[in-house]
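@channel sequence for tomorrow's demo:
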Amino acid sequence: MIVGYHLIMTAYGFWLPNDPRGSWSKFVGAWDLFEAGGRATRDKVTERRSYAKDAHDRERRLATKGALLYPPVRFNGLQARAVARGFGAFIKKSGLKAWACAVMSDHVHLAIARHHYDIEQVAVKLKQAATLRLNEEDIHPLKQHIKPNGRHPPCFARGEWKGFLDPNDVAPCIHYVEQNPVKAGLHSQVGMWEFVTPPEMGDSL
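structure tokens (generated this afternoon):
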């Protein structure tokens, strides 16, 4: 029985659809990226694990990143806090339950309970809320870049990665999310975000 999700959302430029380590993408939508790095590499991703440290052609990966229209996004401390505040606003409004959250410099991990929104909708709305907050605080990471329509480019990549959690998966997922900053040499974020609440019996665990 699916009771929740491990949701990962990446910042713009973090993990490209044709990353030589593999990706979860079927298609490379930008010609410059395709020309620099080739087709999407979904066929290389077959396991539920991190591929970040896998051996790969680093020069090719960096060359592909160089073909991006905008600099890869890396959230600083104030921007990460704004992202979390945006998440909190949506979570409060929607009734979504977040069991754990880690806002990293170039991606975000969340352990969340199943909701009446599809997980894909949840990801879209979380990114929208985070972007709204970044704009409200005037600290959007790509604020110096304006598109022809007058808006900033998206600071999050399109799509998301989601892992489906049954009751036995919830505790290990929460632990993984909570340890993510620590493993990266950063301060723990446990207790930092008011919208994070521990699982309850009503969560069907």
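heads up for whoever presents: The two ends are 10 Å apart (CA to CA).
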